[in-house]
Amino acid sequence: MKGWILYKKSKNELKESNYEVHRFIEEAKKSSIELQIIKPEQIDIIVGKDDLGNIMVDGKSCPLPDFVIPRMGAGTTYFALAVIRQLERLGVYSVNSSNSIEIVRDKLYTQQILAKNNLPIPKSMLVKFPVNIELVEEYINFPAVVKTISGSQGNGVYLSEDKNNFIDLMHLMESTNPNANIIIQEFIKTSRGVDLRIITVGGRVIGCMKRINSSGGFKANFSAGGVVEKYELNAEIEWLATTVSNIMNLDIAGIDLLFDEGHFKVCECNSSPGFKGMESCNKVNIPVEIFNYIKFRKGIY
């Protein structure tokens, strides 16, 4: 079986910190899977009237893989999406699909879909300049979380502790980029500096961990220095994680839950979750779980 990982770096450009891609390479060798690391920029797309089109790598025609694993998440560009769509049209199985990746990289659209399906989420509001401060205060209140529409690993997320701080931030944003796509989200006080990350593969939970900010900040991301520990599943956590991944049609998903006074709210979902923290505190081999799922979907038992 042959596969591609679409990633922002080629194999020769990988660093030690690119943990997940190294793990895929390591486990692929053990499973006799021929795995290539491909940058979207290496690919040319040719679309013709008389066929489904073609894909070239480094200017040359090449055999298509059996599957592709996009690992760009929220950083997926229009060109990268076009590459994934072309591969899908040529019969290559993409895990995740281009449609699912496009949906979940838009945080507001994700929240709209979750709300439509009656799932618990923090209240969210799209910024429109000039910002109606009274409206934000009435429906979101302060502190308030300010987020870019697209982002991962805690990037593009800021906590406005009070009204004055929020006004200053909005004035700065409006003066520098009045067309910025920003959302304001309710701050769940009981989840300050802590949250849960659940990883699902094929709609099945394979790991759950608690992320803790050890320096007193409000973001708990492991990639930003957070501490992680295994967290025991319960029915509510499992239902939320599997329901979200199914609604978003995500074969692989990282679901973030906020602690909400004995229950949970869905914060975000990620189509290309990091899993270094998860493997460090759970007895789970995530690349093997993903490869086994791909074999299942390809009818290889």
Report the sheet with the most strands, covering strand number, pairing sense and barrel closure: 5 strands, antiparallel
Q: How many domains make up the coordinates?
A: 3
CATH topology of the largest domain: D-amino Acid Aminotransferase, Chain A, domain 1
Count of β-strands? 16
- Please tell me what the overall shape is: globular
Description:
The protein has helices at 19-30, 78-89, 98-104, 107-116, 133-139, 163-176, 235-247, 276-281, 286-297, and strands at 2-6, 34-38, 43-46, 54-57, 60-61, 67-70, 93-94, 124-126, 144-148, 157-160, 182-186, 194-201, 204-212, 227-230, 252-260, 263-270. Helix content is 31%, strand content 27%. Helix 2 packs antiparallel against helix 3 (98-104). The chain folds into three domains: 2-94, Rossmann fold (3-Layer(aba) Sandwich), CATH 3.40.50; 123-187, 2-Layer Sandwich (Dna Ligase, domain 1), CATH 3.30.1490.20; 190-294, D-amino Acid Aminotransferase, Chain A, domain 1. The longest helix has 14 residues, at 163-176.
